[in-house]
Structure formats: structure tokens, C-alpha cells
Amino acid sequence: MSDQGGVPSFHIDQVHRAEQTLNVRLLDDQAELPGVVRMRRWVRDALAVRAGETAVDLGCGTGTEVVELARSVGESGRAIGIDPNPSMLAVARQRAAGVRTEFVEGSAYALPLPDGVVDVLRCERVYQHLDDPARATAEIARVTRPGGRVALIDSDWSTAILHPGDPQVIESMRQRMDAAVPNRRSGRRLRGLLAEAGFVIEDMGSEAVIWGPDSAVPMCTAFAESVVADGTITVEQRDRLLGDIEHGIAAGDYHFSVTMFAVIARHP
Predict the structure, then answer these.
(1) How high is the pLDDT of residue 9?
(2) Is a pLDDT exceeding 50 seen at residue 1?
(3) Which of 77, 79, 83, 38 is nearest to 59 (CA)?
(4) Average model confidence (pLDDT) for the chain?
(5) How does 169-182 read in b/e, with b if 16+ C-beta sit within 10 Å?
(6) Crossing angle, helix 167-180 and helix 213-229, to 10 degrees?
(7) Most confident of 158-162, 213-217, 264-268
(8) Considering just the CA atoms, what is the radius of gyration of the chain in Å?
(9) Do 129 and 107 meet the contact criterion of CB atoms below 8 Å apart?
(10) For the chain, what are the domain ranges?
């Protein structure tokens, strides 16, 4: 991710090819977290994608869910992945080889689709990256046909819990993340954004996504390094925090989680 004042950029269109391997690994690790698996399964059941439909995954990343959509729409339908990052799209196309899918470079603010052509659209963990989520939601409404279904899924980073560690150091890091993430409370705003865009809310779900040490420690370490670089915490505070986490893991006294929310809506 590109650096802004020592903190990695959370704008997905600013992730450069040089960081792509790390970004893909993080997405793969997160896709295996039980909470993410359960949330995705719930969303699939709620959307009930049918053969012959046009289904879109906005912010498709590595393309995993586009492949799932392709299985549901069959040969008579379309499964389309949209992402602003061309190098990520290259990974998705490679992984979806042999499956009837389409991958298109595009922005959430200007979807590369005509009006009213989409039967089903899912968008997972994209809104936290957006500076103007209302504009993106209006675009989703534009491309969704009457009766079409939409699922917005996102984390609410204000629900993040990290243990153990000095509460003051953790709070300093939390405040720095507040400044770095464009829309870190996105999870709680999804329903209102959809309602404002004219959608009818049909269901909501949530899942506390719990990171195990293997997936959480690299992310915590990378962020701790970045906030040392910008002066948010000292080297000594970083070392103490990472040591506390290491000892907590060894003793079985460790926790890192964030709550994800999903909203299912219908275009009237």
C-alpha cells in the first residue's frame, strides 16, 4: 500500500504492484477465517442467486466470490468482478481460468455497466476504503434493475478488540487508524446508505471475525511499525506491545477481533 505520513494507504486503488504479493496473502488469510466463511455463506443464502441472472462482485479482489457467483448463474448468466486495481484483476483472472467469468477494471464511483442491468450485486469490505460512500451507493442503485438484490458487507473498525497490551498504546494506534481509514465506521452506516439510495432493507446480519495469531500478528506488526515511523508511539512502546502479544499468545491469553455487518436490500 502507498504510504501517507508513515501509515499505509487504505485506498484500494492506491495499492501498487510492488505490494501485490502481500496484499493477496492477506486476502487469502482473511478468506479462511471462520467468521468470514460464515458471513459469506449467509450472504450467498440470502441473495439466492439464480441461473440466468447477471451477478456482480464489486471490489472482487482475488475473484473468489465471482467464481461462486458463476456457479450459481450457470452458462445462461453472467458473473462479473469489478475492481480498481489492474494487478489484482490479473490475479483474479488467473485463478478463475476455466470458469465462465468476466473481470473489469472500474471504480465504485463510475461502474462500467449500463443502467438497470444487474440482478444481484455484492460488495464486501470495500466501503471502509471509500471517501464518498453515498456516491458509490447511488451508482449501485443506478445499475441494479427493479427487484434486484444487493448485499453490502463491511467491517466496523471501531469494534476492534486487541488484547493483551497497554491500553494507552492501543488507543493511540486506534486513533491513528481513525485518520488513516477513510470510512472506518462503515459497518454501521450500510443500512442508512442503502435506505437513502432508495433500497428496501430486507435483512441484516453480523459476525465477530476473530483473527488467529498467524493472521493477526503480521498485520499488527506492520501497523505498529508504521505508527512508530510517524511518531504516534515510541520504539519502546512498540516493542513492549509486541512482547505482550507474544507472551499472551504463548499463554493462550490473546484476542483480536472486529465485527463485520451485512445488509441485504432490494431495489424497488
Answers:
(1) 34
(2) no
(3) 83
(4) 91
(5) bbeebeebbeebbb
(6) 80
(7) 264-268
(8) 19
(9) no
(10) 3-157+181-209+259-266
Give tens-digit pLDDT for 153-197.
999 998 999 999 999 999 999 888 888 888 989 999 999 999 999
Least-confidence region, from 19-33, 35-49, 100-114, 253-267? 19-33
Handedness of CA 224, 229, 231, 234 (dihedral sign): positive
Distance (Å) of CA 5 to CA 164, 232, 254 = 27, 11, 30
Residues 212 and 257: their CA atoms lie apart, in Å, by 9
3-state secondary structure the chain: CCEECCEECCCHHHCCHHHHHHHHHHHHHHHCCHHHHHHHHHHHHHHCCCCCCEEEEECCCCCHHHHHHHHHHCCCCEEEEEECCHHHHHHHHHHCCCCCCEEEECECCECCCCCCCEEEEEEECCHHHCCCHHHHHHHHHHHEEEEEEEEEEEEEEEEEEEECCCHHHHHHHHHHHHHHCCCCCHHHHHHHHHHHCCCEEEEEEEEEEECCHHHHHHHHHHHHHHHHHCCCCCHHHHHHHHHHHHHHHHHCCCEEEEEEEEEEEECC
Residue 79 forms beta bridges with which residues? 55
On whether the CB atoms of residues 114 and 143 are closer than 8 A, the answer is yes
Superfamily of segment(s) 3-157+181-209+259-266? Vaccinia Virus protein VP39 (3.40.50.150)
Q: Which residue has the higher pLDDT, 211 or 15?
A: 211
Residue 65, C-beta contacts closer than 8 angstroms, at least 6 positions apart = 40, 57, 81, 122, 124
Partners of residue 55 on adjacent β-strands: 79, 120
